[in-house]
Amino acid sequence: MNDVDGQAGVRGRYVIVEGGEGVGKTTQVVALAQRLSEAGIDCEVVREPGGDPFAEAGRELLLGELERTAPAEVLAFNALRAQLLIAVIEPLLATGTWVLSDRGRLSTIAYQGHGAGADLAWTREICAMTVALCPPDVEVVLDLDPVVAAERRTMRGDDDRFERMDLAFHQRVAEAYRAEAALAGIEVVDAEGTPAEITDRLWRVVSPLL
Ligand SMILES: Nc1ncnc2c1ncn2[C@@H]1O[C@H](COP(=O)(O)OP(=O)(O)O)[C@@H](O)[C@H]1O
Ligand SMILES: [Mg+2]
Fold first, then answer.
1. pTM of the predicted structure, to 2 decimals
2. Residue of minimum CA distance from atom 24 in ligand 1
3. 80-94, 155-169, 176-190 — which is least confidently predicted?
4. pLDDT of residue 202 exceeding 60
5. Mean pLDDT across the stretch 152-158?
6. Quick one: pLDDT at residue 132?
7. How many angstroms separate the CA atoms of 13 and 5, rounded?
């Protein structure tokens, strides 16, 4: 991922911020983008699912209420991920722009695998094949007690299909992130504290890529 593009210079970096609902992902990708801009780095924030008109239309479907099976959901999230990776992220990286993503493949493994019961080995494999289209430089998991995360979400107001799941589901997802991060050697960052404190912790993970 560190190859040099002849026309545009150094390739951008692709950073994924992960974690359950309300842990502070959206807050932190914006804060990281701000710090990177201050360091003179061009960067863009994207979210999964989403990223371009096709993937945003798919987001509506996936975050909506239509009944679906867990395997169908795994494939649909990965279809939208492929669109985002090929149509949006790869072209940005190629021009030297950094991409900060709000969610990625670990979300599918945590929510559709551990949370909704899709076969874990199959889900990991599908996700690995999709991610190979444009692998991230670093993934980091924000870890927060689901009770505290639920309080933060109550303050925020809006919610979707996944945010409305019960506390047991969110506990399962939080536990899944820790387990998958340990398996894959992915950094877990404590998401308790002020937003600035958490940005400092994330910066320690991201700044070595500069
Ligand atoms: N460190 C923090 N302490 C307290 N509240 C926070 C913190 N970080 C974010 N929030 C607030 O908590 C809510 C959820 O944060 P958000 O970034 O939307 O989480 P996520 O994108 O992971 O669901 C928002 O209202 C946000 O302003
Ligand atoms: Mg968010």
1. 0.95
2. 156
3. 155-169
4. yes
5. 87
6. 98
7. 13
Atom of ligand 1 nearest to the CA of 192: 1
CA dihedral angle for residue 193, residue 197, residue 198, residue 200, rounded to 10 degrees: -170
Q: Which domains does the chain have, with CATH numbers?
A: 13-209 (3.40.50.300)
Nearest to 36 by CA among 24, 45, 26, 46: 45
In the structure, ligand 2 is a single-atom ion and the residues with CB under 5 Å from it are 26
Establish whether the linkage from the previous residue to 49 is cis, with ω within 30° of 0.
yes
Band of pLDDT at residue 26, cut at 50, 70 and 90: very high
- Of residues 185, 83, 97, 74, the one with CA closest to residue 138: 185
Specify the pLDDT at position 157. Answer: 83
The Cβ-side half-sphere exposure at 39, using a 13 Å CA radius, reads: 16
Ligand 1, atom nearest to 27 Cα = 17
Residues with CB under 6 A from ligand 1: 19, 21-27, 152-153, 155-156, 193-195, 198
Which residue from 21, 26, 27 has its CB within 8 A of the most atoms of ligand 1, so it is best to mutate?
A: 27
161 DSSP assignment: T
- Rounded CA gap, 34 and 31, in Å? 5
